[in-house]
């Protein structure tokens, strides 16, 4: 394949530190490195295309920590019934959190610092859908019908 490669940089817009509305995109059961059950949560941040990852580990030897983290989540997402651990019911629900910046592998990243209780969210702007990335319209990006010749079963491929 021939290609005239030219480096194309994209500016990475990092979500600012502070309070933000978040929506649950996915919530899946997983196993931590230490073998504990955990929830792997992915949030969409109001107005941004950057995902936010968060994990809640179920520590049987320290249930008070796990219960505190679940309580904070339930207090933030008022549309999730307290104690409802059926994560399918969580998808699409909106809450809020405080985001802070951390350095990871030499780059600035975002981290969910803590959840905001529902009563602390009143001053936040309403949910905003993330900005859509501009899609360049060109002949190369438009779907095109590509002619092909089917190969009969047993027939050798042209590159064999």
List the helices and strands and how they pair.
Layout: E1 18-31, E2 37-45, E3 51-57, H1 63-76, E4 94-104, E5 107-115
Antiparallel strand pairs: 1-2, 1-4, 2-3, 4-5
- Sequence stretches where pLDDT stays below 50 over 5 or more residues: 135-142
How much β-strand is present in the residues?
A: 25-35%
Shape: globular
| CATH fold type of one domain | OB fold (Dihydrolipoamide Acetyltransferase, E2P)
Which descriptors would you attach to this protein?
five-stranded antiparallel sheet, 5 strands, 160 residues, mainly beta, single chain, OB fold (Dihydrolipoamide Acetyltransferase, E2P)
Task: Give a quick rundown of the structure.
It is built from one helix and five strands, in the order E-E-E-H-E-E. It is mainly beta and 160 residues long. It has a five-stranded antiparallel beta sheet with strand order 3-2-1-4-5.
């Amino acid at each position: 394949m021939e290609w005239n490669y030219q480096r194309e940089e994209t500016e990475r817009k990092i979500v600012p530190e502070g309070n933000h509305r978040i929506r649950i995109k996915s919530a899946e059961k997983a196993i931590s490195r230490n073998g504990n059950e955990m929830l792997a949560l992915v949030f969409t941040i109001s107005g941004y295309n950057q995902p936010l990852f968060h994990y809640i580990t179920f520590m049987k030897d320290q249930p008070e920590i796990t219960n505190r983290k679940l309580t904070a989540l339930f207090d933030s997402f008022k549309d999730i019934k307290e104690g409802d651990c059926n994560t399918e019911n969580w998808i699409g629900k909106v809450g809020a959190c405080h985001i802070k910046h951390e350095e990871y592998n030499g780059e600035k990243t975002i981290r969910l610092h803590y959840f905001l209780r529902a009563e602390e969210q009143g001053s936040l702007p309403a949910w905003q859908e993330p900005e859509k990335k501009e899609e360049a319209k060109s002949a190369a990006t438009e779907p095109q019908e590509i002619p092909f010749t089917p190969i009969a079963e047993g027939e050798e491929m042209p590159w064999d």
